[in-house]
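so i finally got all the pieces together for this one. its three components total, 564 residues if u count the protein bits. some of the lines might not be protein, just check the labels. i wanna see the whole assembly predicted at once instead of chain by chain like last time, that was a mess tbh
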Amino acid sequence: MKIPKMILSLTKDEMQIVREQDVVPFRNRVREYAVRVKMGLVNQTKLITAASELVRNMLNYAKGGKIRIEIVSRGRDNGIRLTFVDSGPGISNIDLAMKDGYSTGKSLGLGLPGAKRLVNEFNIQTEAGKGTTVTIIKWSNG
Amino acid sequence: MEKIPILKMGPFLLVTIQVDLYDRLALNLESDLIRMVNKMGSRGVLIDISAVNIVDSFMGRILGNIASMSKILDAQTVVVGMQPAVAITLVELGLPLNGVRTALNVEKGMQLLQSMIPPDDGGGDENTEDDTIAD
Amino acid sequence: MALDTIALLQKKKQTILETWIKHQLANDALRDELISNEDGRAQSEELLNAFLDKLRTEARGGSAADDSDHVQDILETVTISRARKGYSPRETGVFIFSFKEAILKALSDEIKNEPVILFEESQKISNKIDVLAIESFETFIKSREEVILRQTDEIAEISTPVIRVWEGILALPIIGTLDSSRTQVVMESLLSQIVETGSEIAILDISGVPAVDSLVAQHLMKTVSATRLMGAECIISGVRPEIAQTIVHLGIDLSGIITKSSLASALKYAFSALRLEVKKISKDVKA
C-alpha cells in the first residue's frame, strides 16, 4: 500500500545571519534554490519577500540566528523549505503577533502575517525566553 | 561606503535604485535625499525602482518615509517602474504604501510630478542641466 | 500462502487466464476499439504471471517489497495507459475484480474437500488483490487528474488574451471562473502587458465570469490594487445586474474601484481619462 505523501528533503544548506550585511547574500541564495526547482518569477518573489521579512525579524528581535534552506518534494511537487531558528526572546502572544498591524518594534508590524500569506505552509514555534523557530514552504507551482 | 547617486533634473530629483538596499544604505539614502530636496528647493522626487526585484515591508517603509519627509519640505514623491512580480507580492503582503504615488516609468512620472505642482511655481533652480550630486 | 496452493494456481494458469478474459469480454471491459484484444490479453497474462511470481517469492520468505513492485509496476502501467485512452472507472474495476473471481474460481474448483483451507487461502488471495485494486484506482484517478490539469492550463492560457484596444488602453476579457491560481495568471499577464505597452489604463471585462462571490471580488480587487501600485488604473466592466445584486447582498465593498456595466462605457471613461475625444466627422470634409 502506498504511504501517504510525506515531505522529503532533497538538499540541505545552512546560513548564519549575524548582521544586516548577511541579508542580501541570504536572499540571493534562496533565489538560486528557487530557480533550481523551476519556480516561476512571481512565486520566487513571494518566497524571497517572505524570507526577507522573517530574516529581518530575526535580526531586529534576536540579534540573528541560523537559517536552513532545503529543497523538498512531496509526491510530484518540488519546493523550498526555509527554517529560521533564533535564540531570542521568543514571542509571548502568538495570536497578537499574527494580526496585521500589531508591532512591538518600530516596524509596520506586517512581518509574520504578511509572510504567511506569501507562502504555502507556515509554522511557528516560540516561547517567551526560549527563542523562535519559523518554518515556511513554498511549492514551485504555488 | 557606497552611496546611491541622486540626479538633479530641473525642479526634480531622480534616484535610481539598482542595488539591494540593506538597512544602513537605505537610511543614508533617506537623509541624503532630504538634504538635497532642501538644498535644491526641489519640488519633486522620482524614485526609479525598475531594477528592484524585492520590495519587503522595510523597503516599503523607506519609500513611505521619503514621501512623507519630502511632503514636509513641499516636494512630491513618485515611485516609478515597479516590476509586476513586486506589485503582485506587495498586494499579497498587504503593504499599503500610503502617500506614495506611482507611475509606469520615468517619463510618465515626470508628467505626473509636473501636474502635481502648481504652474506658477518654478522651483528653486530653473536650469535643466543634469548634475550628479557627488558626495 | 501455502506453496501447494501456489503450485495449483500455476498449474491452472491458462484456465484462470481464459476465465478472466471471458469475464472482461462479458462485461465489455476489453474495449477492443481502444486496445486490441491481443494487447488486452497480453496485459492480462503479464499481470497474472507477475502476481503468481510474487506469491511464490513471498511464500519462500523472500522480500515481498521487490516483487510487489513488479506487480505494482505492471498494474500502474496498465492502469495509466487505460486511463489516458479513456477507459471508464467501471472497466478498470472489472479488470481487477474479474481477475480475483477467476483465481478464486480456480481455487474452489480444485480444493473441493477442505472447506477450511479453501476459505483461508481464498481470504488471503482476496486481501492481496483488494490492495491491488485500491492502488489501481488511485493511479487511475491520478492519471485522469493529470489530464484535467493539463487541459486547465491550456484553457487558462487561451482564455486570458490581452487586447490593445487603443494606445495606452488594454482590455482583458475574462472568460470562466476566476479562482486564485487563475487570478495570478491574469495578473501576471495583464501587468507585464502594461509594462510592455506602457498602457496606463486596463479594462477588466467580467461579463464572461459566471459568478462573483466574495472570493472572486477579492481577486478582482487584488488585480486592481496591483495595477494601481504600478502606476496604472484598472476599470472593471461587464458587470451584469445579477452580479451587482450579489455584491451588495454579500456586503462586499467595491468603493474605490471603478466599475462600468459595458465595455463601451469603460472605453469612454478611459478615453476621457486620457484626455481623448471621439468626434463624428463633419459633413464638410470632402476630397
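Chain A has a mean pLDDT of 87.
The radius of gyration of chain A is 15 Å.
anyway lmk what u think
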